[in-house]
Write a structure and sequence with these properties.
The complex is a heterodimer of chains A (328) and B (323).
Chain A: H1 5-30, H2 45-52, E1 60-62, H3 68-73, H4 78-85, H5 119-132, E2 139-144, H6 151-162, E3 167-173, E4 176-177, E5 180-181, E6 206-211, H7 215-230, E7 236-241, H8 259-266, H9 270-280, H10 286-309
Parallel strand pairs in A: 1-2, 2-3, 3-7, 6-7
Antiparallel strand pairs in A: 4-5
Chain B: E1 2-5, H1 6-20, E2 24-29, H2 44-48, E3 53-56, H3 60-72, E4 76-80, H4 91-98, H5 101-104, E5 114-119, H6 134-138, E6 144-146, H7 151-163, E7 168-173, E8 180-183, E9 196-199, E10 204-208, H8 211-225, E11 230-234, E12 237-239, H9 243-253, E13 256-263, H10 268-279, E14 289-293, H11 302-308, H12 312-322
Classes of the chains: A alpha/beta (328), B alpha/beta (323).
Chain lengths: 328, 323
């Protein structure tokens, strides 16, 4: 667990950055400035930040369609991310990927992914690379409860276990795969178990379920799993219970869930939980908290301005990057 | 020169690249102590160890997806699918992940992986183990596609594929595995995108791939006795395609017959026909013809399988009809 003030504040800042970033994306998407689809991470900030705070720069993550939070938490540049979401040439992917495909390979961010569950086998691959190339890099593989029903989940956890791959599987159980509840005792459900972590036993790895809205709990669990993976102890599955405040995508009517349920979860706001702890323990003052919030707001506003003012890609760029070219 | 089988030539290519580059590794079902379903990996596990010749569970999706992730993070995986027919199990990893990663990331992600897999009928393996599925991948931007017909080509092309910084689908024809041929002693590679003229002739051009290069050469031998000289071109790599060599030959002969083992509709052969009609129509003195398999699943009985597969005789008939 993080104990010194500087580290705790870094986590708070990252969570606020994600909150501010996603709120801006929500706004500009609604205004029609952002094309395509966006899937927001609002309400789940503790997981990305808790997990990525346990990593080194040369560790890897694989992400999902709901990836903005993971990427920011792993150190993704706010400006390049926002510009990519706006489809601009200054974006991470030169406007070729958009929200669902942002990557920063140099930071070990192996990409958001538009196919649910596709990040899992890719994580197996980065785990294999650590073994082949003799590095101590660990991969954190983010995926959701919906992905845990896909074959990719089964095949990857099995392979990771058999080969003792250095991977931490972080399942963000936000209770719904679009409209399908992960579990309920009565009625429709994606799986007939309450906890995704129960599946770990079938692969011979450890599995735990934790409060995904508690950044310190996430950080502690992932830290331990990373340590284990780094010292050749193999993979782990950590299920983080959480809730997405927005629909699956912006524009989702959310007719499959009650407003009361959302309100209940908003009371468990991960940022409020963490900031209250920091204030109660007198680790930060109200004044410091406000200063941080103002600083983050300004940073995201700058990024948005950068994105809005950046150039569109040139139509001539459409045929570039189909095949890899070494850049001098 | 030395005399090697197609399978031995492939094994030599992998061994040489693994000696040279410690980031090259193999993974697939039964590639280790079993030596590969068709014996291609052979003794490589004894030579390079289980870490670099990885026996996987039955897990096609994780084999291909794992190769993508490994390739993105500094390794050069050679993944093997036991039969090309099993590619359907891992198709998202082929078409949404491997192929698109570089483009989607704006050129950041390098995916230097090879996916080796055997195609083809002729051994009674029936519908789910015999497909020639070149058409599944030839149309996917971001992939390179190779199908060698001789041991020498197999070795030189596989070495290039392993060194390539892009995903390469490396098809092998299972009937060719035990065929022998001369292979250079020295270290060599054959570039992807360079066709080979397997026989020169002035009367008609046959563009043939894989097993059908042999059938086209047999047809050429027989037709030569009647004074008809065929030019046999093996593209060797289907993507990138050496259009120049094909078009130059068609310009010389005025006749184009495309012979591949795929089912005809929507095939790689159709793509070659389209290229010739777009860029070489005025060279033609007769319609382009495709000699391909029947548009059916591959049948089991030997009689039916032979009825499904085009024969050397079918190629001869096509040539004569175009003269």
């Amino acid at each position: 667990m993080k104990e010194n003030k500087e580290e705790l504040l870094e986590m708070l800042e990252k969570m606020l950055e994600i909150r501010e970033f996603e709120s801006s994306v929500q706004q500009y998407f609604a205004e029609g400035q952002i094309p395509g689809f966006v899937h927001l991470y609002l309400g789940e900030e503790a997981i990305a930040v808790g997990a990525c705070s346990a990593l080194k720069e040369d560790d890897y993550i694989t992400s999902t369609h709901r990836g903005h939070g993971h990427l920011l938490a792993k150190g993704g540049d706010v400006k390049k991310m926002m510009a990519e979401i706006f489809g601009k040439v200054t974006g991470y992917n030169r406007g070729k990927g958009g929200s669902m495909h942002i990557a920063d390979v140099s930071l070990g961010i192996l990409g958001a992914n538009g196919i649910v569950g596709a990040g899992l086998p890719i994580a197996a691959g980065s785990g294999i690379s650590s073994q082949i190339n003799g590095t101590d890099a660990v991969t954190v593989c983010f995926f959701g409860d919906g992905a845990s029903n896909r074959g990719t989940f089964h095949e990857t956890l099995n392979m990771a276990s058999v080969w003792n791959l250095p991977i931490v599987f972080v399942c963000e159980n936000n209770m719904y795969g679009i409209s399908m509840p992960q579990y309920q005792s009565d009625g429709r459900k994606g799986q007939n178990i309450k906890d995704v972590a129960d599946r770990a036993v079938g692969y011979g790895i450890s599995g735990i379920t934790i409060d995904g809205n508690d950044v310190l709990a996430v950080n502690e669990a992932v830290n331990e799993a990373v340590k284990k993976a780094r010292s050749n102890g193999g993979p782990s599955l950590i299920e983080c219970k959480t809730y997405r405040w927005r629909g699956h995508f912006e524009g989702d009517p959310t007719n499959y869930r009650d407003d009361e349920e959302l309100e209940e979860w908003k009371k468990k706001d991960p940022i409020k939980k963490f900031s209250s702890f920091l204030l109660d323990e007198e680790i930060i003052t109200e004044k410091e908290f406000k200063q941080i919030k103002d600083k983050i707001k300004e940073k995201v506003e700058e990024a948005t301005k950068f994105a809005q003012e950046s150039a569109e890609p040139s139509p001539d760029d459409v045929t570039n990057n189909v095949y890899f070219e070494e850049v001098e | 020169m030395k005399n090697l089988t197609y399978a031995e030539a492939l094994r030599e290519a992998m061994a040489e690249e693994m000696e040279k580059d410690s980031s090259v590794f193999i993974m697939g079902e039964d590639v280790g102590v079993f030596g590969g379903c068709f014996g291609v990996t052979g003794d490589l596990v004894q030579r390079f160890g289980e870490d670099r010749v990885r026996d996987t569970p039955i897990t096609e999706t994780a084999i291909v997806g794992g190769a993508v992730g490994a390739a993105m993070t500094g390794s050069r995986p050679i993944a093997e699918l036991m039969f090309a027919s099993f590619m359907g199990v891992a198709m998202d990893e082929v078409f949404n992940q491997a192929a698109k990663m570089c483009y989607m990331t704006g050129g950041q992600a390098k995916v230097p992986m090879v996916l080796r897999t055997p195609v083809g009928g002729g051994i009674g393996a029936a519908a789910q183990h015999s497909v020639c599925n070149e058409s599944w991948v030839v149309g996917i931007p971001g992939l390179k596609v190779v199908l060698p017909s001789t041991p020498a080509d197999a070795k030189g092309l596989l070495k290039s594929a392993i060194r390539d910084d892009n995903p390469v689908i490396f098809f092998e024809h299972k009937v060719l595995y035990e065929t022998k041929g001369e292979v250079p002693e020295e270290d060599y590679t054959i570039p992807l995108g360079k066709a080979d003229i397997k026989r020169e002739g002035d009367d008609a051009t046959i563009i043939a791939t894989g097993m059908f290069v042999r059938k086209a050469l047999e047809a050429a031998d027989q037709l030569a006795k009647e004074g008809i000289e065929l030019e046999v071109i093996d593209p060797r790599s289907l993507v990138p395609l050496d259009k120049e060599t094909i078009l130059a030959s068609v310009d010389k002969t005025g006749r184009a017959i495309i012979a591949t083992e795929e089912t005809k509709r929507g095939s790689f052969a159709s793509e070659v026909a389209a290229v010739i009609s777009e860029e070489g129509l005025y060279s033609l003195e007769a319609p382009i013809l495709r000699v391909c398999s029947e548009d059916t699943p591959v049948p089991f009985s030997t009689v039916l399988e032979q009825a499904y597969l085009p024969s050397t005789e079918d190629i001869i008939t096509a040539v004569k009809s175009s003269l």
